[in-house]
Amino acid sequence: MKLKHGIAIFDTFKSRENRFTGEARRQRGIIAHLATEQSPELRTRTSIAHLIAEKQGILWQNMYSGIFRDLDEVLIPSGVVKEGGRLPLRRGPKALQMEGVPFYELSESGLIVASALEELGRSRMRILESTIKSVTIYDPNDEYVREGILLLIRFIPAFMGKIINLYVRAYCSGSLSGITPIDIKKLRMVLASQIEIEKEIIGSSSRLRDEEWETLQKFVDRIA
User: Fold this and answer.
1) DSSP secondary-structure letter at 1?
2) How far is residue 139's CA from residue 4's CA, in Å, rounded to a whole number?
3) CA–CA distance, 27 with 172 (Å, rounded to integer)
């Protein structure tokens, strides 16, 4: 049974499948911002609304309610985002001053989700590498999963980008109940039928002579 998490980062318009919905753009903006911004003052709801609204060319007031809903109803309940702490207030109601204003950060799962966002460019693989190095491996037999992912990040980042994109898509659609820990069972369920070409290439590489491999490299370089 699929579990819908409500994460809309891959949602597109039915009539324009190459264009993200407004909800998808907001959620992608929130996740990308939290993945790269270090300052707590710029990770509050209001600051996030200001920054994303500026990028999209709209008033921040029109963005705030959507940001509030995305955080409180989707990204926090799903475990992608968590409260990172509270900033003290010098003005306003005394109760609010004492309670402070929350700022947010990505969880371990959120960092993996962030690594599937093309908007982050080269930072995607740096984020994924750092997260995979620190993520807990509960089954010692899955340690080679970590080692394999780190090797792909280093030597074939485009392939790793495809894998993590498929993996995060499966989570957002509800095909996976949880995104961490990454184990062989989850990866097999998501990827078994999706990476046949890459599997064939890797499997054949050890059988090719040096000159044959060089010929293939030239062929790919010419058409890429």
Assistant:
1) -
2) 27
3) 12
Q: How far apart are CA 7 and CA 26, in angstroms?
A: 11
- CB–CB of 34/24 below 8 Å? no
pTM for the model: 0.85
| Both structure tokens of 122 | 């080269």
Hey, what domains does the chain have and what are their CATH numbers? Answer: 1-106 (1.10.10)
Tens of pLDDT, residues 14-29: 777 778 998 999 999 9
What is the C-alpha to C-alpha distance for residues 86 and 191, in angstroms, rounded to an integer?
A: 40
Closest CA relative to residue 71, chosen from 54, 84, 57: 84
How sure is the predictor about 5, in pLDDT bands with cuts at 50, 70 and 90? low
Asked if the peptide bond before residue 102 counts as cis, ω within 30 degrees of 0, the response is no
The residues with which 86 forms a beta bridge, in sequence order, are 102
Q: Produce one character per residue of 159-198: b if its CB has 16 or more CB atoms within 10 Å, e if not.
A: bbbbbbbbbbbbbbeeebeebbbbeeebbeebbeeebeeb
Average pLDDT over residues 175-194: 83
**Predicted pLDDT at 1:** 41
- In eight-state DSSP terms, residue 9 is T
Residue with tokens 């819908």: 4
Secondary structure of residue 200 in the 3-state scheme: helix
